[in-house]
Amino acid sequence: MIGNALKSSLIIMVGSSMSSQQLVSTNPTDRLNEDWWKQRHNYCVEMTKSGGIDLVFLGDSITQGWEGGGKPAWDRDFAPLRPGNFGFSGDRTEHVLWRLGNGEIVGLNPKLIVIMLGTNNMGHGSSSPTQTVEGMKSILQILRTKVPDAKVLLLGIFPRGKESTDSLRLQVAEANAKYQLLADGNSIEFLDIGKHFVRIDGTLRDRLMPDYLHLNQGGYEIWVKAILPTVKRMMNVEVQLK
What is the pTM of this model? Predict the structure, then answer.
């Protein structure tokens, strides 16, 4: 059974620019056929039940990568803040909607939820930038309703593709411009740190993103330094810059 939260979010999405036919074509339950995904979902449900998480990271493989190349930075700078990693490789907005409706995060009382999500919607060709933003809007509505005391830091989708003219780079830029409008100046803030991964000529810094999408350890070091002051401020934790 799909949870009530997910049902509500799907209604919101159907009522926007995403049609019911498009929702069927991107059925979020497709991932239940992947054993690793089911196991990670079950783990995250148990993590939610256990509680004790003040800082939630929600997203796709780029977020999950805090457990790989990003682990040194995570252990050094985020671990003291009682974090939880809810990143799933390959996830799109509809998968996160399903996860929120099926036992993840809802029930926690975190101080802050950091979201990095949307690149797979456009990268897999399942969604336009506008549809990606509508999916994010639904996620934010669920979080505001089900986790009302948490603040949200919505991050701009990282640039992808080697050149500034890459079609996916342009789609990401369009989505980010609309993501920015989702910030409410109160509990939801938007922060785009994509400039740190691009050279002056617009090409992607492949020393940080070797495949022009995913970060290596150096990329995660850039990420943590770029958001840590904002994270600590939003969590009302004393900021100590190194």
Answer: 0.87
